[in-house]
Amino acid sequence: MEKKYWIAVVSKDHVEKGIELEIMQVCHGKKAPLKKIHKGDNIVFYSSKQKLGDKDPYQKFTAIAEAIDDEIYQVTMFENFEPFRRKVAFLDCIETEIRPLIEDLEFIKNKKHWGYPFRYGLVQISASDFGLISSKMLLKR
Question: Which of 5, 26, 41, 80 is found 20 to 30 A from 63 (Cα to Cα)?
Answer without folding.
Answer: 80
